[in-house]
Design brief:
Structural class: mainly beta
Number of helices: 4
CATH topology: Maltoporin, Chain A
Helix content: under 10%
Shape: globular
């Protein structure tokens, strides 16, 4: 599930699936997600997804819509993959309670297999360590997932350890009818190394059910339903020095309570769902798809020692429409692509004792259009890709408790250039650059007018039934006035065994 965010997703989802979940984006990112998707080649080419044709980048219900029912059609051959990755982000250009440095190390395996001529399954397992360093006052895994947050007076490091897994299964009932199911599950625990030394537990589950009906071999229509549950719990115990814990519970940026205690538990439990309709066309020259998704989430925050009392509610209603098309003109080594998205995301916060009074209102609107082209220079075995995305955001962050009202209409430009060179159909060398002139924060707490430059490179070796791929990344963010920067580094290696 996957976008409001990040919040922290820029670092946690370096390689996020093409099918971006409305809810995951809307709530809290799953941990160690970089091993989750099958698109390392695309990531080394600056995430050019519109026109770069790849076995994991088709315009179909599974690659574009994460509808598990289409896995049996999308399956081409069995494989198993082992992977390892390291990612790091550091710098002062951040929000107040973001970590100064984060590092993510993970390893795992994934694979795909046909169980019969009617069934296919795909799965992944990852184990990772996520370290947040120099975390100022924050006592949560994601301080910016809603308008309620916890602080103490310390700056320290938090380390999270835990596994992440996902499974998708597909069954063909008839030649034109497919059903499927799957799930994502993550769990991790973390401990802050400074007083008040809270233990933080994150638990994420998302189900995924889908059905697909084809019409005449070129058309397909589908539906998917995904329930989601996320629980974040922060446990406090009396310190080794025997001191009581003192924290502040914030509702918005101005209303807070000071709590003193020995043992205490604070939990967030989020329930939600998303339901989507999908339509696709697969022609000789044109592939196109459209996805309309509705989502709803409710996050309940509770505090207490033995019995936990509700202290806040965060709710969201989301409607998202995405469209994508790819066209190959006859007789030309050219691929053209276009995409569009409209997203309406309304979030608001309430307190149980004042449920008639709106505490926080956070409407979010996105209107996006993109276009791109890939030129295939077959004589020299090279491909050149250029893509451009124009996003318009209308965001309001209205904190009625603090009497702080932030709003902004933002135009964001994203440009991508990439190149790939193949040698002897064995070696592949890739590179790309992505320029973003305004990374978005839906709470409007990041400094405005940030420029981010992201450089990617990679290579692949394909021989003897093995595929070895590597991804390297460097990104640099700066502000035209502030004397501060932020940098990203990443390295990922895949070893894939083709089992034919």
């Amino acid at each position: 599930m996957e976008e409001m965010q990040k919040v922290r997703n820029s670092r946690l989802q370096t390689l996020r699936p093409v099918a971006v979940s409305v809810l995951a984006a809307a709530v809290l990112p799953a941990l160690f997600t970089a091993g989750r998707c099958d698109e390392l080649r695309l990531s080394t080419m600056a995430n050019c997804r519109l026109t770069v044709e790849d076995r994991d980048n088709g315009i179909n219900p599974y690659d574009f819509g994460r509808n598990p029912a289409w896995l049996a059609v999308d399956f081409d051959y069995p494989w198993i993959r082992f992977f390892f990755g390291v990612e790091e982000t550091s710098g002062e250009l951040r929000r107040e309670m973001d970590p100064n440095l984060t590092s993510d190390v993970y390893a795992g395996f994934m694979g795909s297999k046909s169980l019969s001529d009617r069934q296919a399954i795909n799965g992944r397992f990852t184990y990772g360590r996520l370290r947040d360093r120099e975390v100022s006052r924050s006592l949560e895994i994601d301080q910016y997932n809603d308008c309620f947050y916890l602080t103490d007076l310390s700056t320290g490091d938090i380390e999270y350890y835990g596994p992440s897994t996902s499974v998708d299964y597909s069954l063909r009932l008839r030649e034109d009818l497919f059903v499927g199911g799957g799930f994502d599950y993550d769990i991790c625990t973390g401990l802050k190394d400074q007083y008040t030394k809270p233990q933080i537990t994150h638990n994420y589950f998302k189900g995924n059910l889908g059905v697909i009906k084809t019409f005449g071999g070129k058309w397909a229509a589908g539906m998917s339903v995904s329930p989601v549950r996320i629980q974040n719990r922060t446990d406090f115990s009396k310190t080794d020095e025997g001191f009581d814990n003192v924290i502040r519970q914030y509702a918005g940026d101005a209303i807070y309570e000071v709590r003193t205690f020995s043992d205490y538990t604070i939990s967030e439990v989020l329930f939600g769902y998303e339901a989507g309709l999908q339509g696709f066309y697969d022609g000789a020259k044109l592939d196109a798809g459209i996805i309309a998704t509705w989502g709803m989430v409710e996050n309940e925050i509770k505090f207490g020692s033995t019995y936990r009392y509700p202290k806040g509610y965060w709710k969201q209603d989301i409607f998202d429409v995405q469209a994508k098309a790819r066209y190959t003109p006859g007789g030309m080594p050219l691929v053209l692509g276009a995409g569009a998205e409209i997203k309406i995301d309304d979030g608001w916060g309430l307190r149980p004792n004042f449920d008639e009074v709106l505490l926080y209102d956070n409407p979010f609107r996105l209107y996006s259009g993109s276009a791109g082209a890939t030129w295939l220079a077959r004589g020299i075995n090279m491909a050149f890709t250029a893509e451009y995305t124009l996003n318009k955001f209308d965001i309001e962050a209205l904190d009625y408790g603090a009497n702080l009202f932030r709003e902004s209409g933002i135009i964001q430009n994203i440009g991508r250039l990439a190149v790939e060179k193949r040698v002897f159909d064995i070696y592949s060398f890739r590179g790309g650059v992505e320029i973003t002139d305004y990374p978005i924060d839906r709470w409007l707490k990041m400094p405005q007018n940030i420029d981010k430059y992201r450089y990617t490179a990679g290579f692949g070796i394909y021989t003897g039934g093995w595929e070895i791929d590597a991804h390297l990344e460097y990104a640099h963010s700066s502000h035209e006035i502030l004397d501060s920067t932020r940098k990203d580094l990443a390295g990922i290696v895949w070893f894939t065994r083709i089992m034919q």
